[in-house]
Amino acid sequence: METKQIEKVLKAPAPHMVGDGFRVHNFFPSGYKINMNPFFLMDYGSKIEFSARKEPRGVGVHPHRGFETVTIAYHGAVAHHDSSGNSGVIYPGDVQWMTAASGILHKEYHEANYSLAGGPFQMVQLWINLPAKDKMGKPRYQAVKQSDMAHFDLPENGGKIEIIAGNYQGIKGNANTFTPIELYNARLNKGGGATFNFPEHFNTGFMVIEGSIKINGSETAVADNFVHFKNKGEEIKIEALENSVILILSGEPIDEPIVQYGPFLMNTEAEIHQAIEDYNQGRFGYLEE
Length: 289
Prior knowledge:
Oligomer: single chain
Order of helices and strands: EEEEEEEEEEHEEEEEEEEEEEEEEEEH
Strand content: over 45%
CATH architecture: Sandwich
Strand order of the largest sheet: 1-22-19-24-17-14-13
CATH superfamily: Jelly Rolls
Largest sheet: 7 strands, antiparallel
Low-confidence stretches: none
CATH class: Mainly Beta
Structural class: mainly beta
């Protein structure tokens, strides 16, 4: 099997705040012009210390249509509420998978007890595009707790691969997706290694959350680096140079036009105008601030 070569190892772009609770580095689409379709956006919240606070920090009520938001917690805790009646809290290792589809209002903020105590905070949020046929479907919410997450134990105490979505070594992830997507957390012990095989045409990237790794026996990537791969070859081998956590993303691109306006991700300008009108007319439901 041919090795999938690295296109580039990317350093974290300058951070910005989303609301008052999320300091993020936008790797794409703004930070770097790379093609990660069907992953439209990745905000990486590198590790930061938040001071204790009675009033939780976060992002107030806002709409989405036409895609999914996937939030992965590494440090800290985030609470979620949406206009479809879903709510939940994700703690380190947990994943929140929200399908906005035809339209939803939601809010995200630091969980109350975490806010009162303060401490380290580190998250990733992805926007995953939906195919045109599913953009106006019914919103849904999937909570994937780390304690319930499918995983594969690597040999020789090398660590484990947590399978959020997709399939690794015959083990299927918990989350259901609309298009073929592989999404894992690789938690490697020092000296541990793992091999991944993705179709050549899948867009693939690795986000190094902690530690440092050697890729394909040559290049090194360290914490807060994003590794973007070429669409050539299938096999990737990594080795942990120290205890490491790596977010693995690979997905089949959706070959359809994309038109984005703020929190809406559709296929045509007309659909964007309709989304704005529907939001202004209250058709996304109601959610209290």
